[in-house]
Amino acid sequence: MVADSASFAFALVYDYLLPIPPGLLAVLAFIASGIVSAVPADVGARDTGIEARAIPDLSLDFAQWIWTGEEGSPGGGAPVGWRGFRKNISHIQTGCPVCVTFAIASDNGYIVYVNGEAVGDNLAKVGSTLAFLQLDVYSVALNPGGANVIAVNSTNIGSAASVVVTGIVQYGDGSEEAFVSDNSWLAFPGASPPAGFQNPLFVDAGWTPASQQGFMGSGPWGDPSILPFTGTECQVFTS
């Protein structure tokens, strides 16, 4: 934006290489002052083409504790080690996904990725019941024109093992779609997840549906709670 009316007036005629008589410059400056003052002062802040998406309310009502099936029975002991999980985010007929907000916890710890990038973990809580009693919240921009995936690398240090997730995908047309941890997630049993498993285009054809161990309140995990969101809201392009 031009800093003042005189320079704005000069700019108007400079592009056309016209000589500016002193008296005319004063007249043009007076006219331009009205143009400049009519532009809102915050236009630069508002006309960025980027907006922060509000954090939606998340619910654990339909979420299930999931694992790989190695636990034998719900809440049963599972082998020690890291296990991988993937959830592909779909496009809908009326819009492309632009943002995902989700809450996650794990017994005993997790690293979570969105489209190949690590966005958080709870490894500081490994060995504490807070690892599965407190769900951390993340808000991440998605790729509207391509594949999107949430991937989790979860560790078990002994006894029962589980992951719980609840989230909402926001679409460019303003619609929303909820998802939870259930058997729509894919799991990689028997070993640590292979290299690149967190990437959207990773081929997960050999993975199996995650095992469902029960809703909140079941098994050894009790009723966890979702922590308040403390991060930065998802930033999406609006134009």
List keywords for this structure.
disordered N terminus, five-stranded mixed beta sheet, 2 domains, globular, about 240 residues, about 15% helix, Jelly Rolls, alpha+beta, six-stranded antiparallel beta sheet, single chain
Q: If you had to describe this structure to a student in words, what would you say it looks like?
A:
Strands 6-5-8-3-11-12 form a 6-stranded antiparallel β-sheet, with no helix packed on it. It has a 5-stranded mixed β-sheet with strand order 10-9-4-7-14. The chain has 239 residues and is of the alpha+beta class. It is 15% helix and 36% strand. Strand 5 and strand 6 (117-121) form a beta hairpin. The two termini are 20 Å apart. The chain is built from 4 helices and 15 strands.
Topology:
Blueprint: H1 5-14, H2 22-38, H3 43-46, E1 50-52, E2 64-67, E3 81-89, E4 97-107, E5 109-114, E6 117-121, H4 130-133, E7 134-141, E8 148-156, E9 162-171, E10 176-180, E11 186-188, E12 208-209, E13 211-215, E14 225-226, E15 235-237
Parallel strand pairs: 7-14
Antiparallel strand pairs: 1-15, 2-13, 3-8, 3-11, 4-7, 4-9, 5-6, 5-8, 9-10, 11-12
Helix pairs in contact: 1-2
